[in-house]
Amino acid sequence: MNRRQRSRIRPVTILVLIALLLVPGVPLTSAQTDVGTVAIVTPASRSNQGWDQQGVDNLVAVGEELDVSVEVAENAGYDDITPILLDLVSDGSQLIVCHASGYQSVCPEFAAAEQVPVVVIENPGAVAAGLVSDIETQAQDAAYLAGVMAGMETRTGTVAVVVTGEPPTWNYMTVGFAEGLKAARPDARLVYASVGEGTYDDAAAAKQTTDTVLAANADIVFGMGDGAAFGMIQSIREYNQARPVEQQARFIDVIGDKSASEAGDFLLTSVLFDYSAAYRQFIGDLEAGTFGSVYTMNLANEGVRLLPTVIPVRPETAPAVETARTAIVGGTVKVSVIGDAAGVQARLAELFPAV
Hints:
By secondary structure, the chain is an alpha/beta fold.
């Protein structure tokens, strides 16, 4: 079994339950639950400063807030995780967060077979009353703001997007970023490069890909990867070592906060994902007997937002980003929502004909 973290379990108040059973007209159904223990399964390490760590850290924080025990099963990979799920249930987990789009099928099937509630990622069609809730991430608006920042900050006029595959989440952010860049710097050039499908943890390949976009004169890299992001960071660090500050490249991250890492010297910002409100709602839903819904993280509810600027930027940059944020939340700027790879390429070609 993978390493786990435990916090204090809230005790069930037996006398209150007995009293409710004895009071006429007070419903007490099996759908209502006093939640004492929840779990999260992640495909990689809980300390990777990205997708896995952000999910775990947010759930642990919510667990502490609500006095709920949290079990963490990390490094589960993408093979059949059913044995891990069964183990978590046998240890008392009443709700399991399946924190990967790769668990979209196995977790709903497990929930139906074992009658144990689960949370899935990007599978709204699997939502089922009492059994399955879903988290959707609409990150294109926050990525638009990152694009505005890149447009304001680029010195060469060339900005790169480096992705580890083309899942919907990455695609949403690619298009949002490109539209923000175009709005802030109409004459900018965008270089788009894919490390390869499913290369989320391939740091070596990500470094090689980032080397190529830096060679193409990109001075800001918007990188989308988990462990692979460290390859992007290594590429930029090596590139910067032989250059004065005014010629150095900078990095925009996604999901987590790497400001305390080796990227801190050249990290502009990150499109930060915060699952706290979703977890808080789902635990409350389970207790209320209303579990089984979709929670959408977006810019308006700050489920997705920009990390505060890590390194110094131009005085005009922060006001431009805030103006764009106000326009998006107010509805005067509409960011495209494009999740398929073909749609991404068509939109990039429209925005930047030379791509």
